Amino acid sequence: MEKIPFMDLGAQIRSIEPELRKAMDEVLNSRAFIQGPGVDRLNKEFLKVHGGSYGAGCANGTSAITVALRAMGIGPGDEVLVPNHTFFGTVEPIVEVGAIPVLCEIDEEFKQFDLKDAARKITKKTKAIIPVHLYGLSEPMDQILAFAKEHSLKVIEDCAQAVLAKWNGKPVGTFGDIATFSFFPGKNLGAFGDAGFILTENAKTFEWVKKYINHGRTDKYLHEFFGGNFRMDGLQGAVLAAKLPHLKLWTERRRELAKAYDERLKAKGFTVLKPRAGSEPVYHLYVVEVSNRDEVGKAFDAAGIGYGVHYPVPLNMQPAFASYGYKKGQFPVSEKFATRILSMPFYPEMTLQQMDFAVNEFLKVARP
Ligand SMILES: Cc1ncc(COP(=O)(O)O)c(C=O)c1O
Q1: What is the mean pLDDT of residues 254-274?
Q2: Quick check: 315 pLDDT over 70?
Q3: Residues 125-131, mean pLDDT to the nearest whole number
């Protein structure tokens, strides 16, 4: 039994259980299992709490990116720039729509999109860029937008880990042409299953997305075009809408805990995530770099401390990319980063006593 879990979804559920049960009961009573009032509530409340103009709940964060790419007209033969260091789900949708993922290095200091490398990879076929606000830290959106403008690219923001994060005071997901979120259970706003969200500032794009995610429907048995089933379950909408009023507080707590970790680890010479000036991070994960991760992992296992690695294998070294011609050694920054990162136990209900226990064990073995 872990003494300190990596994350504790039970603690969050217990803290608002009557509200969650009420929301779920309403779905059972109404039997609005697909979309319906719960999802309508989420769609409205999400825009109020996170910000943005038009948004729709959908099936999950991965297929949200598929829908976003299709909404941007990305298809066979098009090239899409993505960072080499991200969750695999950022990149699958590019292949799903028949386009080609073009992997880009991350920068040494912030471990985000290296636009110099991206510039080298521009071809006539490059049509879009997917900045990923990984770990809940915003990409430098003014630089990304300037780059996209220069090269006439569509911008699809992957905000899966960054609900409530801001860049220069403006919510992530409101900079590019379209944005996607994931409500995977462990995310900062987590459903009781798979769920996602699509956000855009463009009314026309939104009208298309709303139809596309629901079989291209304009009426029950009338289909304007070929879409698909990318809908959100009613239950997920209801649960997420019930959680939303608490999200700001949970996010504040994440920031406090991240600061406390920073104080304890930076002082001992460890490199931790560094938000850029202008970034208001939401810390989906708390990531520290170590040179002896296996040893730390063993010590944590022995002490009953949960941890994770997000992500140990960069995209260029994934078996799925074997036919794309990438080689080990082509992305020195992201490849090295992947060997050094460790995600510490981290969730809003975690106490400082728990943190101190984990940090104490960490400092016994970890080397910067
Ligand atoms: C950066 C990133 N992109 C995409 C996804 C895909 O989201 P989902 O798991 O909801 O499909 C995730 C989360 O899993 C993610 O962390």
Answers
A1: 98
A2: yes
A3: 99
Spacing, Cα 164 to ligand 1 middle (Å): 16
Tell me the pLDDT band of 1, cut-offs 50, 70 and 90. Answer: low
In whole angstroms, give the CA distance from residue 155 to residue 103.
15
* Domain map (residue ranges) of the chain: 9-241, 247-365
Question: Which region, left, alpha or beta, applies to residue 215 given φ > 0 means left and ψ of -120 to 50 means alpha?
Answer: left
CATH number, span 9-241: 3.40.640.10
65 CA closest ligand 1 atom index: 4
Q: Which of 317, 313, 314, 310 is nearest to 342 (CA)?
A: 310
Strand 100-104 versus strand 79-83 pairing type: parallel
Whether the CB-CB separation of 144 and 172 falls below 8 Å is answered with no
Q: Which atom of ligand 1 is nearest to the CA of 184?
A: 10
- The answer to whether 60 and 182 are in contact (CB under 8 A) is yes
Q: What is the DSSP string of 200-234?
A: ES-HHHHHHHHHHTBTTEEETTEESS---B-PPBH
User: Which of 161, 194, 197 has most ligand 1 atoms within 8 Å of its beta carbon, as the pocket-test mutant?
Assistant: 161
- C-beta of 180 in contact with ligand 1 (< 6 A): no
- Tell me if 132 CB under 6 Å of ligand 1: yes
Instruction: For residue 200, give the amino acid letter.
Output: T
Q: Ligand 1 within 6 A of 104 CB? A: no
Reply yes or no on domain 247-365 having CATH 3.40.50.300. Answer: no
For position 124, what pLDDT does the model report?
98
Judge contact between 90 and 61, C-beta under 8 A: no
Position in ligand 1 atom list of the atom nearest CA 195: 10
134 Cβ neighbours under 8 A, 6+ residues apart: 83, 85, 86, 111, 112, 161, 162
Q: Is pTM beyond 0.85 here?
A: yes
Matching CATH topology for 9-241 and 247-365?
no
